[in-house]
Design goal:
heterodimer, A: D-Maltodextrin-Binding Protein, domain 2, four-stranded mixed beta sheet, B: two-stranded antiparallel sheet, 2 strands, signal (chain A)
C-alpha cells in the first residue's frame, strides 16, 4: 500500500514536471577548454533567466568535426536546432537552402525584435545575403593582428611597432642584428597573408565581389600585389626575417620561446599569448604595403557563426529566437568579448566594454576592433563566400609551402593555386546549382 | 582435412554472427561507397545527380593523384619494412632474455594500446622544430630539422609515428612465432657448428615465414587504410603534398571538405588497389612461404 502511494506520487510528479517542462534546444558547438566552459555558463544564465526554454550546449569537437556531425545528423534527421559553423563553411551552409532557417527570417517569424543595424557591419556582412539580411548569427569573430615582443624590440633599439611591411623588414633586420633568430612568423597563412592581405589593400581575392555575387566566382589572388607579397615572404624565409611554422597556429611556440619577435595571428589569440608570453608584448594592426594603398581598408573576419537548422517545431524556434536575442544583449556580448578575445558583434557591446574601462586595463585588446571598423567595408573587404573553401585553403597552403621552401616562384605557385582552386569552385557550383 | 557437421543448418548458425558483422560493417558501407562514387551530391544530401564516371575521370586526369599514389607506396612499404624489421630484432632479443622476460614483453606491447591520433600528437611534440626535444637534439647534432618545410623530413616523421605502435603488434606475432620454433632443430645446428647468425638465417627465419607473410599483408593494409589519424595530427598531408597519402586524401576530401562523391570514388580506387596487392601477395609471395 505504502509502495503504491509512493508510486502514484512519483507518477504524478513526473506528469506534473513534464507538463511544465521547458522546451529543449540543442546547440552544437566547437568551443573547447575555457571558451567551452564559458559557453556552458552563457547557456545556464539564459536558462535561469526564464523557464520556457532550455538551451543545451553540446561540444562536438573542432570546427570541422562539429560541421560534419551536424550535416551527418541532418541526413539522419537528428539535427540540432543551432550549430556553430566556421567561416569557411559559410558558403556550404548558405547553399543548403532546404537545411537552414535564415536568422533574419526566424526572428521575423517568431516576432522577436531584431534590429540589424545594431550589429557591426564588418562582422555581419560576412554572414549576410546580397540584400544585407543576416543568414546566421555571428558568435565568435576575430581578425588578424600583429603581436610583437617589446623586450626584444627594446634590446634591438626599436621604439615603435611596425605599421607597414616595409617597417617589418627594417625592424626585422635590426632584430636579427641584435641576435634574435627570426623576425616574424605567422599563423593561418592563407587567411592572414592572402585573404586579409587582399582586403587590407582593397584588392579582390575572387571575382563577383569575392563570391558574394554568386556561384560563378573565380579566384583572383594571383594578382601583382599578392604575388609581390608572397615573393617577398619567400625571400624573407631565406634570410631569416620570416620563419614558417605550419598551417595552423603552431607558430605561437616560436613567439613564446622568443625565437621570433613578431607573430601575425588572430585577435582571439590574445588570451593564450597573455598566458604564455613571459615578456612584455604589444598588439599592432596588421601591416600593409606602403605605396600600394593610401589608407588601408578594414580586415576581414574569421571565426564562426551560429546557424539555425530546419526540421524543428515552432515552439523550439521561438526559443531559438529568444536565445539569439539574449546572446546579442550588450552585457552578454561584452562579457564574451572580454573573456575570449573574440570581437564584439554589436556597437552597444563595444561601447559598454569601453565604458567599463576594459581596453585601458588590457592594452592591445582594442586593436582588432579598431582595425575591423575603420571605414565602410567594400566589395573586397566584406568577406569571402567560396564553395569548397576548405579544399581551396588546402590548395593555397600547398602553394605557399612550395614558395617558402624555394621550390617554385610566387607567380607560378599562385597561378597553379588559382587554377586548382577554380576547379573546386566549379565542382561546388555544379553540385549546388 | 574437412570437418563435417551432421546438420546443414548448424555451420551457418555458427557463422551467422560473424557474417552479420561483415555484412553490416563492411559489405553494406562498401556498396554505399561504390554507389556514391557515381553521384555528385551536396553536403546535406538535398540534391543528388548521377554523373557516371566523372568522379573517376577527375581523379585520373589529376597529376597530383598519381603523385599521391607514389607517396602512398613509399609510405606504406617504409612503414611495413621498418616496423617488421625492428619488431623482429626486438623479438629475437626478447626471446633470449631470461630474467624479467615478462616486464620487457609487456613494455614492448604497451604502445599498441595508444590511439593513433594520440601517437601522432606525441611524435608531433617530440619533433616540433622549435620546442621538440628530438628536433632540438638533431639541431645540436647539425641536422636542420624542419618538417614544416622539408618534405622528406615530414615523410620520415609520419613513418616513425605510424610505425611506432605497429612495432608492438608485429613484436607479439614474431615472439609467438619464435617460441614455436622447435629447440631441437636449433640445438642440432649448434652442435654442427652453425653460427648464431647462420642458425637464424637458415632455420629460424624460414620457419617464421608464415608469420612474416601474414604481418606483411596486415602491415600494408594498416599503412594503406588506418594511418590518416596520425598524418592529420602530425603533418596534415604537407608540406605541399609530400605526405598526402591516398587514405588521407579520402579522409580530407570526404570528412573535412564534404565532397562525398569524389571521396567515395577515391575509396573505391583505394579498395581496388589494396585488393589487387593482396592478390599479388598471395599469388607470388606466398609460394615462398613454408607452412610446416
Amino acid at each position: 500500500m505504502h509502495n503504491l502511494k509512493l508510486a502514484s506520487v512519483v507518477v504524478g510528479l513526473s506528469i506534473a514536471s513534464s507538463g511544465f517542462a521547458a522546451t529543449e534546444i540543442e546547440w552544437w558547438h566547437a568551443m573547447g577548454g575555457a571558451n567551452g566552459e564559458k559557453v556552458n555558463e552563457i547557456a545556464k544564465a539564459f536558462n535561469d533567466s526564464q523557464d520556457a526554454y532550455e538551451v543545451k550546449p553540446v561540444y562536438k569537437g573542432n570546427y570541422t568535426e562539429t560541421m560534419t556531425s551536424a550535416i551527418a545528423a541532418f541526413r539522419a534527421k537528428q539535427q540540432p536546432a543551432i550549430v556553430q559553423v566556421f567561416e569557411v563553411g559559410t558558403a556550404s551552409m548558405m547553399a543548403a537552402k532546404g537545411a537552414i532557417y535564415p536568422v533574419y527570417k526566424l526572428m521575423k517569424d517568431s516576432g522577436q525584435a531584431f534590429d540589424e543595424s545594431a550589429y557591426l557591419s564588418a562582422v555581419t556582412g560576412y554572414y549576410s545575403n546580397s540584400d544585407g539580411q543576416m543568414l546566421s548569427m555571428p558568435f565568435n569573430s576575430s581578425t588578424p593582428v600583429l603581436y610583437y615582443n617589446k623586450d626584444l624590440f627594446k634590446k634591438a633599439g626599436i621604439s615603435q611597432a611596425p605599421k607597414t611591411w616595409q617597417d617589418v623588414e627594417s625592424v626585422s633586420n635590426k632584430l636579427l642584428a641584435s641576435g634574435v633568430s627570426c623576425g616574424f612568423t605567422t599563423a593561418w597563412q592563407s587567411w592572414i597573408q592572402l585573404e586579409n592581405l587582399s582586403a587590407r589593400h582593397n584588392v579582390p581575392f575572387a571575382s563577383l565581389e569575392n563570391g558574394f555575387g554568386g556561384l560563378k566566382t573565380e579566384l583572383k589572388f594571383n594578382g601583382p600585389l599578392q604575388v609581390a607579397h608572397v615573393q617577398k615572404m619567400g625571400e624573407w624565409q631565406k634570410n631569416g626575417i620570416f620563419s614558417y611554422s605550419g598551417r595552423t597556429n603552431d607558430g605561437a611556440a616560436k613567439f613564446y620561446s622568443q625565437e621570433c619577435a613578431m607573430f601575425t595571428e588572430s585577435s582571439a589569440g590574445y588570451a593564450g599569448i597573455k598566458r604564455n608570453a613571459k615578456f612584455d608584448f604589444g598588439v599592432a594592426e596588421l601591416p600593409y604595403w606602403e605605396g600600394k594603398v593610401k589608407q588601408p581598408s578594414n580586415t576581414i573576419i574569421g571565426g564562426a557563426s551560429l546557424w539555425v537548422l530546419q526540421g524543428h517545431s515552432k515552439e523550439e524556434y521561438k526559443g531559438v529566437a529568444s536565445f539569439l536575442s539574449y546572446l546579442s544583449k550588450a552585457s552578454v556580448q561584452a562579457d564574451w568579448h572580454q573573456f575570449s578575445g573574440y570581437l564584439p558583434i554589436t556597437k552597444a557591446a563595444y561601447d559598454l566594454t569601453k565604458e567599463q574601462g576594459f581596453y585601458k586595463a588590457n592594452p592591445g585588446t582594442e586593436t582588432g576592433v579598431i582595425q575591423m571598423t575603420t571605414g565602410t567595408p567594400t566589395a573586397n573587404t566584406k568577406g569571402l563566400r567560396l564553395g569548397n573553401f576548405v579544399q581551396i585553403r588546402g590548395v593555397i597552403d600547398e602553394a605557399l609551402e612550395s614558395v617558402w621552401s624555394g621550390d617554385v616562384d610566387a607567380q607560378t605557385a599562385l597561378n597553379t593555386a588559382v587554377e586548382r582552386g577554380n576547379a573546386q569552385l566549379r565542382k561546388f557550383e555544379k553540385a549546388n546549382d | 582435412m574437412t570437418v563435417t557437421f551432421p546438420q546443414k543448418g548448424l555451420p551457418w548458425l555458427l557463422l551467422l554472427p560473424q557474417l552479420l558483422v561483415t555484412a553490416i560493417f563492411f559489405l553494406w558501407p562498401a556498396e554505399q561507397a561504390l554507389e556514391q562514387a557515381f553521384y555528385q551530391e551536396d553536403a546535406f544530401g538535398l540534391s543528388r545527380e548521377f554523373i557516371g564516371l566523372e568522379n573517376f575521370a577527375a581523379l585520373f586526369t589529376d597529376p597530383l593523384y598519381y603523385q599521391s599514389m607514389l607517396t602512398t607506396l613509399v609510405f606504406s612499404f617504409s612503414v611495413a619494412i621498418v616496423g617488421m624489421s625492428l619488431a623482429l630484432l626486438l623479438a629475437v632479443m626478447a626471446d633470449r632474455v631470461i630474467r624479467g622476460k615478462l616486464a620487457y614483453q609487456t613494455l614492448l606491447i604497451w604502445p599498441y594500446a595508444v590511439a593513433p591520433a594520440l601517437a601522432g600528437v606525441l611524435w608531433w611534440i617530440l619533433f616540433d622544430p622549435s620546442m621538440g626535444p628530438i628536433a632540438l637534439w638533431l639541431k645540436s647534432a647539425g641536422v636542420d630539422w624542419n618538417h614544416y618545410l622539408n618534405g622528406n623530413q615530414a615523410m620520415i616523421l609520419v613513418v616513425i609515428a605510424s610505425t611506432w605502435k605497429q612495432i608492438s603488434y608485429n613484436f607479439l606475432f614474431f615472439l609467438a612465432g619464435l617460441q614455436a620454433v622447435p629447440r631441437s632443430l636449433i640445438e642440432a645446428a649448434a652442435i654442427d657448428g652453425a653460427s648464431p647468425f647462420k642458425r637464424f638465417w637458415t632455420i629460424v627465419f624460414p620457419l617464421l615465414s608464415p608469420t612474416t607473410f601474414f604481418l606483411l599483408v596486415v602491415n600494408l593494409v594498416y599503412a594503406f587504410f588506418e594511418t590518416f589519424g596520425v598524418i592529420d595530427a602530425t603533418t596534415k598531408g604537407g608540406p605541399g603534398q609530400s605526405t598526402t597519402t591516398l587514405v588521407y586524401k579520402v579522409f580530407n576530401d570526404g570528412f573535412v571538405g564534404l565532397d562525398l562523391g569524389g571521396s567515395a570514388a577515391q575509396s573505391v580506387v583505394l579498395m581496388a588497389i589494396v585488393g589487387l596487392m593482396t592478390v599479388i601477395q598471395f599469388r607470388f609471395i606466398e609460394r615462398k612461404v613454408q607452412y610446416s
